[in-house]
Design goal:
The protein is α+β, with helices and mostly antiparallel strands. The chain has eleven helices and 18 strands. The strands form six sheets. A five-stranded mixed β-sheet has the order 9-4-1-11-10.
């Protein structure tokens, strides 16, 4: 599973997104070559390193070579431009989806058919480059899922083709109306219609909780630098095995034996030896054997390469005189561990995933015991406090 996560604490714009994608590892030369497939002239990308309030990242600027020659386009003109290019089908579809979101929003605001919307700012070359560039970068990164935090929209007013507008702009509100947002952290337009549309089109889930390991962090630098908040878009890249292949039958084996004449105190030492040898699981099942004698079935799950060692340990450390062994199919959920700060202290959390979605979250029991002892609380009280921290997204 390869996850791209957008941390939009300072909002998002088209150029900030391009900068973040390049900072994350998208090859600028590849992006430039792909954009040339649009077969339009008059712009080029300028890539540079920059920083905002001590945070360094990549700044991507679409340079318009002859602004006075820019055309106002309708949605159908942009669709034709994209469809007639030699871009991949995936990039074409995603680019048109983003433009369609903006057209729908503008049409609703102005109460006109979306095909009649004049793409003023969003139809300009820089926005075409930002939107098509976003689709190119997403395909380049080959991510399986895209997550995003709540989006900071900003505040105040913004000047556009129709004059002064409140922040967020009406079109932006239409685009983000069904997703979680925040406002007022800064007094400017933190999220543009283009940035909002890109995010809505590519994001699978909006959440402020990060329940996966982070391998890479990148920053896209914004054009303005007018507030104490660093004007950057932060993105995370995560990669982990969320759909582990079923163990081959040659790798998953069950070793069993029935024991009715062994001192039960020996089991603890036996379990320790079996786990130290690399067993995946060891457990006992109560049995009633012949002549109504109570007994235990010892079961040990292991890889084929460990079979001989496991059998040797069982014969040496139990009273059994016979062992059964057979292949089993084994399916394991992807699991990732992380540490989390709570009101009671640091705990270790394990999350399990199925088909890319988190379905179980569990605190390490040893940490529950430690915190219960430290704070003179019951295990139930400690678990409630930790679950509250999880629901609040503390990490």
């Amino acid at each position: 599973m390869r996850i791209l996560y957008y941390d939009c604490f300072a909002g998002i714009s088209g150029d900030m997104n391009l900068g973040a994608m390049i900072d994350l590892g998208v090859d600028p030369s590849y992006l430039t070559i792909e954009l040339q497939k649009l077969n339009i002239q008059g712009f080029h990308l300028e890539i540079s390193k920059d920083s905002r309030r001590g945070i360094s990242g990549t700044k991507a600027t679409v340079i318009i070579e002859n602004p006075e020659n820019e055309k106002h386009r309708h949605l159908r003109h942009i669709e034709e431009l994209i469809n007639q290019s030699s871009l991949s089908d995936g990039v074409k579809a995603k680019s048109i989806q983003i433009f369609d979101l903006i057209a729908e929003a503008e049409a609703k605001v102005h109460q006109i058919d979306k095909q009649r919307v004049h793409f003023h700012e969003v139809g300009a070359l820089d926005s075409i480059a930002d939107i098509v560039g976003a689709a190119i970068c997403l395909e380049y990164l080959k991510v399986d899922r895209v997550f995003s935090s709540s989006i900071q929209l900003g505040g105040g007013t913004v000047k556009c083709a129709h004059g002064l507008m409140p922040v967020p702009a009406p079109a932006t509100v239409e685009i983000i109306k069904t997703i979680p947002v925040k406002t007022g952290l800064v007094q400017h337009e933190a999220t543009t219609p283009t940035g909002a549309a890109i995010l809505v089109a590519i994001t699978d889930e909006f959440t402020d909780q990060i329940n996966f390991p982070i391998q890479k962090i990148a920053y896209g630098i914004g054009q303005r630098d007018i507030s104490d908040l660093p004007n950057v878009l932060r993105v995370y890249l995560s990669e982990f095995d969320s759909n582990p292949a079923m163990n081959a039958s040659s790798e998953a084996w069950m070793v069993e034996c029935n024991i009715d004449d062994m001192n039960p105190e020996w089991y603890d030492f036996l379990f320790q030896k079996l786990f130290e040898a690399g067993s995946s699981d060891v457990f006992l099942t109560p049995l009633i054997m012949k002549k109504s004698r109570p007994a235990n079935k010892l079961s040990v799950l292991c890889q084929k390469s460990l079979l001989q060692e496991i059998k040797s340990l069982i014969f040496r450390h139990t009273t059994t005189i016979g062992i059964r062994e057979y292949q089993v199919a084994k399916t394991v959920l992807a699991r990732i561990g992380r540490e989390m700060e709570t009101d009671l202290g640091m705990v270790r959390i394990k999350s399990s995933f199925f088909q890319g979605k988190e379905i179980h979250v569990k605190t390490e029991f040893e940490d529950l015991k430690r915190l219960a002892s430290t704070h003179d609380l019951s295990l139930n009280e400690v678990e409630k406090i930790i679950n509250k921290s999880l629901s609040n997204g503390l990490s």
